[in-house]
């Protein structure tokens, strides 16, 4: 099957020639080229990556090429623009040419509902008393016995606590990097400690979209 991105490589290379600073950022950050890159050009692109030529301060004789791979590979032509924008945002931020976008509000993703339901069952199972014959706790006692008893339940608790704590530390890093107000920081850290991954993933998506929006405004 023909590569859908390679089929439009010529057009994409011509289009990217209007964004030389972006290509320089790709070469410097993703190509891991040392020294001052003065110019860069996209020679070809396909679903697996792009080949870029570049020159440094040494002059025309310094012209070289570097291959920047896409991780993961592109699934189709429609993914080219968002991937290149995301890569430019990452490169510029890491190289210090732009500030990290500020996050000024808290958002609780709807995906937390998918986590809260099983978490609620876990809490119910954890607190189900062994010596209470009430049918309210029958399912809880059965579930606790099915997973291996109290020892397993405590192990699960410890795993959740450690995982969410590590995610909260990462959230604190993102909070500082993206200059969140104190109230927003508290809200995110509290949500991450309680819910974990869905909140962290949504925050990362918000940050990435803010980076892309910043680039689009600058174009």
UniProtKB/TrEMBL annotation:
UniProt keyword Transmembrane helix, yes or no: yes
Gene3D superfamilies named among the record's database cross-references: PNP-oxidase-like
Chain segments annotated as transmembrane: 153-174, 180-201
Transmembrane helix among keywords: yes
Residue ranges annotated for the DUF2470 domain, each copy included: 11-87
Record keywords, A-Z: Membrane, Transmembrane, Transmembrane helix
Protein name per its UniProtKB record: DUF2470 domain-containing protein
Species whose genome carries this gene: Dentipellis fragilis
